[in-house]
Amino acid sequence: METKLTRITDLAKRRPRVKLQTLIHAIDEEALKACHTKLRGDKATGIDEVTKQEYDENLQENIDGLLARMKRQAYKPQPVRRVYIPKADGKKMRPLGIPAYEDKLVQKALNNILTSIYECEFLDCSYGFRPGKSCHDAIKAVGKILETKKISYIVEADIKGFFDNVDHVWMMKFLQERIQDPNLLRLISRFLKAGTMEEGKLYETDKGAPQGGLISPTLSNVYLHYVLDLWFTVKVTKECRGEAYLIRYADDFICFFQYKDEAEAFYGKMIERLRKFNLEIAEEKTKILEFGRFAESNRVKRGSGKPGTFDFLGFTHYCSQSKNGKFRVKRATIKKKLKTKVKEYAEWIWHNMHIPIEKLIKMLNQKLIGHFQYYGITDNSGKISLFRYLIRRKLHSVLNRRSQKKSLTWEKFAKLEERFPLARPKIYVNIYG
């Protein structure tokens, strides 16, 4: 499997303007079994309710049957089971698609092929859902641009309901720029049009790529590679007399400009560009902001006060200084996200309050460490310490409710912590390392 994918990667690199053929052969018995091994078995099931363990009981027979159907083009993905999860604000809900297990296998194998083709195509400004790139890498890139380049204005942008509004016709046109295998294209099209099942009712999908599908992140990167990344790099930057940069993570992106008029001109062009591909910006999350090394001094001269802030990938970015007085971008957990996370953890503690203390603290620590590993970045020690403080208070409150007498004083709780200590906040990511 790795050999076939390596050959596809090598071919894509050596022939960047050639459309690739006969790619479907990379989805074979070896590839599907490898994908089966890598898929987690604790994930929610699709509409068929088949688990990894159940599929594994007759793995060879299941794989043989799947390949036979694919060979005679009789394989059709099942509708995706749609559920809803809370957004970061805790008020709105985000749709999530859960494919059937067999469809996950095919999607993973298919995604391996797409990644082999497009990793050499995607630009350095794209960070979302790519091997070797992370949210923290995107945040570091934002900081580097603002601290070292001649940037005074940014356009903070968010695409409204991107995953629900991907245009299938445009998607297939973009894929055909590099892929000429009709069988692979047909397979992708079938996944896009598989439909969704919600509360027993089938809904057709003539647009969108449901979040939760294993190929959706890569397909979204392909879509925005052509819609935004190439357009910005090839056209927008060359039309600017000053410096201009783009950093994108999935459908969230930040654009950087040296001059205000060019930021304003781009804002209008961006709306028109997205509209051409049946997308639109979320106006409440999109703005032009004076920000950067020179923004603060320029605003002081005009008597305009301190520069504003912008949110990106869970952090509020603001202008500040280092210990030696140099300009520095600092970051803090977004207030809404902090509030939502505290509420989420408090509910979890409440629902698990009767678990033995040792096990409860062990499970809670795993969650806390996960939070610290993401939000524990340079300059954010205050917010992660606050998060632990609030969770500690919630834990004390809930444990106190376990006893009708409410006899767990803070002194007794402190002794309990000596036996079963809560995880301490820690900076895991050095932005300047």
TrEMBL record:
<protein>
    <recommendedName>
        <fullName>Reverse transcriptase domain-containing protein</fullName>
    </recommendedName>
</protein>
<feature type="domain" description="Reverse transcriptase">
    <location>
        <begin position="66"/>
        <end position="317"/>
    </location>
</feature>
<dbReference type="InterPro" id="IPR013597">
    <property type="entry name" value="Mat_intron_G2"/>
</dbReference>
<dbReference type="Pfam" id="PF08388">
    <property type="entry name" value="GIIM"/>
</dbReference>
<dbReference type="InterPro" id="IPR000477">
    <property type="entry name" value="RT_dom"/>
</dbReference>
<dbReference type="InterPro" id="IPR030931">
    <property type="entry name" value="Group_II_RT_mat"/>
</dbReference>
<dbReference type="InterPro" id="IPR043502">
    <property type="entry name" value="DNA/RNA_pol_sf"/>
</dbReference>
<dbReference type="InterPro" id="IPR051083">
    <property type="entry name" value="GrpII_Intron_Splice-Mob/Def"/>
</dbReference>
<dbReference type="Pfam" id="PF00078">
    <property type="entry name" value="RVT_1"/>
</dbReference>
